[in-house]
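EI: anyone free to look at a 262-residue chain?
SC: sure, send it
EI:
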Amino acid sequence: MKPLATLTRDLVAPLRGFLFDLDDTFLEHGQVLPAALQALYRLKEAGLELYAVTGRAAGWGAVVAHQWPIDGAVCENGNLAFVRENARIVGRDPLDRAARAARREELERVVSELRLRNPELEPSDDAWQRVSDFTFDIGEYRRVPADVVARVRGQAHALGASTIQSSVHLHVSLDRSDKASGTLRLLAARHGLDPYRLLSAYAFIGDSENDAACFNAFRLTFGVKNLSGRPTLTPKFVAPSERARGFVEVTELLLARRAELW
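SC: here you go
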């Protein structure tokens, strides 16, 4: 990873959009700082498309897409999305209603078995807002030992489910999307562009292991100082500060480098 200050304007030149994780990246211990929200407005005023890309629930995605100056939110680790179309926020799910209901029923059977085997686990506070996955709280309000998380992941895989671990949650799903594939699916559908071209047109910022797919996929990536877990590929640049303050540092330099182009 390179220091953020080494970012050059030629890397910023191809950008048409900015993708950002929420927990421990844009959010400061779950809260929105005024400076971070102002940074979104500045990015939007500079002409960039903005998408939140998060493991958070569909309920969260719908709210932030409505209330923040962004073009949409990819949520539940790429499985679902909400996008702004004129004055409306429209949900996007690759499955139709009947298929989603059947998959949800099967997921509930898997989760029931996991909870039976691991009674010490607690659902996340937003589990009830979820559509495509179920989440256990492993770091938001309680700390679950790494060996327990590893054991539960193994059990879920044996039951046919996929798992993704973030800085706060363990996600269990029967969908196979990740943050990168779900985001590229959405952007390709919206713009009619080849996904390969999109990899250079959008930058991504994150902090955690569930951001690894985006760190791997997109050409320009950033991490905040509190980068955690073991992503398969780290971001290209790292901010000097943690969480929302690091987010603001990245956006300020990105905008400064864009200004040098004109």
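EI: The first helix runs from residue 9 to 12.
SC: 👍
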